[in-house]
Amino acid sequence: MTLATAAQPLSSFDHERAMKEYGRRAETRARALGNRGPIRVGTDGKLLPEILDSYWTHGFYVFQGVVGPEELQELRADIDAVLSRAPVAPDATVDRHGRLARDDGIVRPPYRWAKPLSDPVGGTDKNNGRHPAAMLQPEAGEDAPAWTVELLDGNLHLSDACLRLYGHPGLLTVAASILGDDFVPYNEVTFVKEPGLGPSVAWHQDGTTHWNAADWDQGAHGFNFMTQLYPSTAGNGVWVLPGSHRRGKADIKKMVAESGSDRIEGAVPMLCEAGDTIVTNRQLVHGSFANSSPDRRITLNEGFFPRKRVLDVTTRRLNGVVETYDEARIAARTRIIQIAIDARRQRFPHETSYVYGPLVGREDENRWNDATRVSVLKNYNQLDMFI
Question: Is the pLDDT of residue 32 over 70?
């Protein structure tokens, strides 16, 4: 069976069956890349060179066993609690239990909605037009709800467990190894792909600012961490075109047209188990299909940039707002890193905490406590940076 084009919709059952056939072939290619294993560092405190080489070659690396069983359980519980407080529909004021939907004084509503198995952005000018081709939109089952939550915005003030993960010493070591010790944050969101409901994310590259820069390189737009709370499969996971981060701005519309469907030739799924974290270059061509599979995916995204690519840069965010990121703006946003480090220290005192170079000596003003929860963390994502 082959997948139909966007003009010939399938049932969710037929879509799932076709994706299984497509996925089996690509899974073999994905595992043959050899870009997976635990976080391993050398005597210099940085990632081993062979891991860095693999990341820069393929554009992503699967770090296995980053989150242990106890922390994984806490993360799942926190995300489920946030989802349980979602309005029953985008314009509703109560959740499925009849309670007032979560507010907590958060300025930017944390819930983003989509129609089940839909493609909300492909082929539109949304997100600065970076999703130029539409994905297949299979028909959801008759019992499917009208809407499904596809994303949570602002992980770190929605979940204490997510804040603690943000301070993970291994992951922050990875960030410094790839971007330099003065790396800075992007944003933090949760991708929600409920079984039989999760919408697609059309093929795209994340970066928008530096493609034509004279000093452009393969790491110009930073990377995302993707910590998986459930296994990531060919059916529910993100697919990538290995090595595409090194080739500049891709003509995705042409790629899709040449493939004759929403399947780009040579793409592979990023496969991993619950508790693994994928680091993926933001310039990599990537996307995800509608989740017609029976498997849930919850992905905790944390993005980081090289400081030199953000400082004094003026850019248009995905919401259309134009901003310039000066030293003060960057300093305000990076405080969250140190607060997360302290939150993790309090929960996991046996670990050796990461030392974030730009805030050495300012640890006491960036402790995790009730005061900083209100004064720094709440609505922190209003200071998100985008390039």
Answer: yes
